[in-house]
Amino acid sequence: MSSFTAHTFANLREPTPDLVKPQMINVDLGSLTDPHHVAEAVATSLRFAANSKDPSLELADRVRSLKLLIILDSCEHAIEAVALVAEQFYQETD
Questions:
Q1: Domain-by-domain residue ranges, the chain?
Q2: Which of 18, 76, 82, 93 shows a CA-CA span of 20 to 30 A to 34?
């Protein structure tokens, strides 16, 4: 876990009366060797099995109603693929 992620987790776990706390998921992408597998890595971290040809759409559908903060950590080497998956999550989950 990067120092940024550790700091984020620590600060969001503190009590805040006006904040509905999401479940926080850290997805460490540092060992990812194929940028095309970003959505599968996220699914694995969430303990979901992605079974479709477009796992990012399937995953977005499954998390749509959940309160989650998904931190895509150590993703510099796959930044374009991570950005696409993040954008798709943003668009598909409102």
A1: 3-11+18-92
A2: 93
